[in-house]
Amino acid sequence: MNTEITIKLQGDNAPEWALGKQNYHYWYHENEHGEQWVAKREADMLHISGLDIGWQEVHLTLEDAKGERERIHNMLLISVIRQVPELRETVGASFVETAIARDRTLGKLPLAQWLLNTGELFWAASVLQAAIPMMEWAREKNNED
């Protein structure tokens, strides 16, 4: 059984690949403000674009994707730690300091320049979690050929 989902992207200049004319792995997110995000995995690259950023395309290599996954997971953990007073005053403070220092050592990652709300961070984390193993597999397969 085949099922088709149609999504109307808002604004101008959505990337051509986001129109779904090719057979790739796609992800879609729309936040509570109606801002849309799309992602596509193509071999060992991940492409992300969003209405929030004027449909500019962000291209992630496997290494970038792994760095972004770590950075975004840290950001999500920090947001939880900041909401629980008992954590902020104990192990949470140490984690926050370590995560911030680690972010500096990761260098400037492609998605770091965009402000993402919590829902968008969860979406990006889930995209990266799903895409990275597929990107690793594609790279391994490419190296075998």
Features:
145 residues; alpha+beta
Description:
This protein is α+β, with helices and mostly antiparallel strands and 145 residues long. It has one domain (16-144). It is 48% helix and 16% strand. The protein has four helices and four strands. It has helices spanning 62-83, 85-88, 91-106, 118-144; strands at residues 25-30, 36-42, 45-50, 57-60. A hairpin with a 5-residue loop joins strand 1 and strand 2 (36-42). Helix 1 packs antiparallel against helix 3 (91-106). The longest helix has 27 residues, at 118-144. It is globular and about 50 Å long.
Give the topology string: H per helix, E per strand.
EEEEHHHH
Q: Quickly count the helices.
A: 4
What does the overall shape look like? globular
Strand content: 15-25%
Q: Give the neighbour order of strands across the main sheet.
A: 1-2-3-4
Largest sheet: 4 strands, antiparallel
Would you count the extended β strands for me?
4
- Regions with pLDDT < 50 over 5+ consecutive residues? none
Helical content (DSSP H or I, runs of 4+): 40-55%
Total of domains: 1
Mean pLDDT: 81
Q: Determine Rg (CA atoms, Å).
A: 17 Å
In terms of structural class, how would the helical and strand content be classed? alpha+beta
Distance between the termini: 33 Å
